[in-house]
Specification:
two-stranded antiparallel ribbon; 8 helices; 3-stranded antiparallel β-sheet; 2 domains; alpha+beta; binds zinc ion
């Protein structure tokens, strides 16, 4: 990070609120820089290290795979046992001629989280080894575009309401995927809260600097 820290001393930043141009300084972790004229937050000190971000993203990816491979809940009533996976729920909705709900569920709980995690790992893993991935800006734009469509928490809330209501009619046993889904939401929230675009571009700058020095 030395190169990025040095670069920060030569960088200028304009306040988004009052346009005051000022020189950036290095900040301690989790501290904020405020505009001296209007007190708006200019930028924040590092929220998480690259290794922490990669660990969180890998943890999310493992939880995501478990969530999609195992049953999310099992229902038992009058001697009949039924269990379903996340993708199985999408399939059932399609069979019940609810293609819009099925598509919305597929996009918000499977496709978008998969795209977000893939884009993050695609960008962060090479940076960890000092390389800038090709198509970095495309992956970054994809991440920004996908994020608002990730609605894991909404799905979990709907699932909990359904399970509580169904528990009056049948025995409900949350499956492995249910717990991994909960774990994924915790890790995803932690990841989103820790991800700072400013830190990210500093890591990119440091990797580019390293690549430039490596060229004889
Ligand atoms: Zn200002």
């Amino acid at each position: 990070m030395k190169a990025a820290e040095t670069a920060a001393r030569h960088r200028w930043i304009a306040c988004e609120q009052c346009d005051l141009l000022q020189r950036e300084v290095d900040l301690a972790e989790r501290s904020d820089a405020h505009c001296p004229r209007c007190n708006a937050v200019l930028y924040r000190g590092s929220r998480a290290r690259l290794d922490t971000m990669i660990a969180l993203a890998l943890g999310c990816a493992i939880m995501f795979l478990v969530t999609n491979m195992f049953p999310i809940a099992a229902l038992s009533t009058q001697g009949i046992d039924v269990s379903t996976t996340l993708f199985g729920t999408v399939h059932v909705l399609t069979e019940q001629e609810r293609p819009l709900v099925a598509m919305l569920m597929f996009v918000t709980t499977i496709l978008v989280p998969a795209l977000e995690l893939s884009a993050l790992l695609y960008m962060l893993l090479p940076l960890r080894f000092g390389r800038v991935p090709a198509s970095l800006s495309t992956a970054f734009r994809l991440l920004l575009a996908a994020h608002p469509w990730s609605m894991l928490e909404v799905f979990l809330l709907g699932l909990l309401v359904t399970l509580v209501k169904l528990s009056e009619l049948a025995t409900i046993v949350p499956g492995i995927a249910f717990w991994s889904f909960c774990g994924m939401i915790v890790l995803f929230s932690w990841l989103s809260a820790s991800f700072s675009t400013r830190d990210f571009w500093h890591w990119v700058e440091a990797a580019r600097e390293g690549e430039r020095k490596a060229v004889p």
